[in-house]
Amino acid sequence: MTISAMDDRIASVIADLRQHADAGYRDDLAPRYGIIAPTAIGVRMADIKAIAKRLGRDHPLALALWASDIYEARLLVSLIADPVLTTPEIMDAWRGDFDNWALCDALCFNLFDRTPHALDKVRDWSRLNDEFGRRAAFALLASVALHDRKAPNAPFLACLPLIEAAATDPRNFVKKGVSWALRAIGERNVVLNRAATELAERLAASDERTERWIGKDALKSLTGPKLKAKFGS
Q1: Which domain does 190 fall in, by range?
Q2: 45 shares its domain with 17
Q3: 3-class DSSP string for the chain
Q4: pLDDT tens profile 51-87
């Protein structure tokens, strides 16, 4: 595809997004949803998904749309980029642009967890200091736990120390991501539920405020009636 043809495609997709833009919805992103996205134009996720369905997987277009810096175009990227072609370098570069929880979670939940590099990035990103970089580690871990039903227990057991190490981070989007990952691991099967519950109980009994919050938040799911019925406990 020529540069001119790609430019035309980018312009067409962005025009499509703008046709669905709602200024009122855009203005609600921060106060209602906690999404700080200065480049947002106000397109709802349902409309973004419909556009993605029409486009299908298109990795070159995804790369170009990411460079547009438009919030909704980057959400669209999470749905049309090819996981096979999403290299560790691309993951690091896009993760470096995360500036809100919604973009972080969309990329982790729709794309990054489907790459063969996902758990390596969980380990790498869990050591980061920026809020959304560290959020990405645990949003990605939760996404893998929820989506990869064939994965063995060992990788998730190996990630529990990462969760425990991050459980003192009081930043809102980090601690919520840590709790999400712990709950998602514990929802997979009896063995992982037992291990996740043991960690959650230890955190809930901590003298440290953030650990205690994460432990109690996770326990509500891990020991709740839904999982008790699922695992026959």
Answers
A1: 89-233
A2: yes
A3: CCHHHHHHHHHHHHHHHHHCCCHHHHHHHHHHHCCCCCCCCCCCHHHHHHHHHHHCCCHHHHHHHHCCCCHHHHHHHHHHCCHHHCCHHHHHHHHCCCCCHHHHHHHHHHCHHHCCCHHHHHHHHCCCCCHHHHHHHHHHHHHHHHHCCCCCCHHHHHHHHHHHHHCCCCCHHHHHHHHHHHHHHHCCCHHHHHHHHHHHHHHHCCCCHHHHHHHHHHHHHHCCHHHHHHHCC
A4: 999 999 999 999 999 999 999 999 999 999 999 999 9
